[in-house]
Amino acid sequence: MSPRPPSRPVGTVTRGTTNPNRLRRMDRWIAATHGAALRRADHPVAVDLGYGAAPWTAVELLHRLRTVAPRARVVGIEIEPARVAAALPYEQDGLTFRHGGFEVPLPHDPLLIRAANVLRQYDEDQVADVWRRLTARLAPGGLLVEGTCDEIGRRHVWVALGPEGPRTVTFATRLGSLDRPSDLAERLPKALIHRNVPGEPVHAFLRDFDRAWAAAAPYASYGARQRWIRTARALSADWPVLDRPARWRQGEVTVAWGALAPRD
């Protein structure tokens, strides 16, 4: 169990923008990749950190996790007390809301912390400290998922981290809305968005992603999904793509963090 959290929440209030189904792509990935760990856990607790002005994302996270881990519980944590008060009527079996911030004020370390669209307003040099603070709160085998999406969840990029640090970066999109993979650059998480410049690995990756997408244009006659799958397969020849067609079909590509990590 972690030390007693500070008396005042750590962090700053976010804009609070939220919409129903905004985080469905991230939730779907979490359920697929982390569901087994939640099923095995004695305390299968997930945190929706900074859920915003309305509690929709926390409610949806509970329902999606329970499809793969029926004992899963979700705690929505918000630094703005008025948002917590507004969310209380939505509490239900397995879902509670609590006032707090990056200290994650829970009696048991959670197995999952999801922080979506939270670090967007922070400076890049603050991200590593927040990551360390949050991963230190994870239970053994736990996962932090931190990233950014657009307002209706069509485009999303997130980093998955364990207690040891960042592991993977996932690019996810509604394929019908995509002109080219580099359209996702505007949704890169804070740790990467300012590194999308020549000489940085994430810039080279998105360049190669676009080239593979262009080369796969003949597959567009079979649909955007088939074109994306062909693109991901070609991309994996030169980049450490960690997932396979079952995830590519969902409009996802997951890459090892080390291949995209910023250069000092």
UniProtKB/TrEMBL annotation:
Segments for region (Disordered): 1-20
GO molecular function terms attached to this record: methyltransferase activity
UniProt keyword annotations, A-Z: Methyltransferase, Transferase
Domain of life: Bacteria
SUPFAM superfamilies in UniProt: S-adenosyl-L-methionine-dependent methyltransferases
Entry-linked InterPro entries: SAM-dependent_MTases_sf
GO biological process: methylation
Listed name of the protein: Class I SAM-dependent methyltransferase
Organism encoding this protein: Streptomyces aureus
